[in-house]
Amino acid sequence: MDIGPLSAAKFYRSAKLATKPNPQAKSSAEVFGSALQDFAKVMQQGENTAKAAMAGKADMPSVVEAIARSELAVETAVTVRDKVVSAYQEILRMPV
Predict the structure, then answer these.
(1) CA-angle at 20, arms to 15 and 24, nearest 5°
(2) pTM exceeds cut of 0.70
(3) What is the average pLDDT across 32-40?
(4) CA triplet 19, 24, 29: central angle to 5 degrees?
(5) CB under 8 Å to 45, separation ≥6 — which residues?
(6) 60: Cβ–Cβ under 8 A, 6 or more apart, which residues?
(7) Above 90 in pLDDT, residue 70?
(8) What percentage of the chain has pLDDT greater than the value 70?
(9) What pLDDT sits at residue 68?
(10) Three-class DSSP category at 56
(11) What does the alpha-carbon distance between residue 51 and residue 62 come to, in Å, rounded to a whole number?
């Protein structure tokens, strides 16, 4: 294996291209905002389906499906919250 200035420059160039940011990638704020909008949409659909069931305009399978989707969305949000709180606590425990 030849390790010289030219091979080092070639490897550096390939590594530099691999770490170059993608300008079309979404920022973390956009991804988080999109996830919150999806969560709100799922919860609103579940609420609308429950209201329709109380009015006698929805069948039971759709109500069960809406409740299951809402439950999954809430469980996911709680899991993400727990991970964020855990990470924050871990940061607070770090020595300065």
Answers:
(1) 150
(2) no
(3) 92
(4) 90
(5) 66, 69
(6) 53
(7) yes
(8) 90
(9) 95
(10) coil
(11) 12
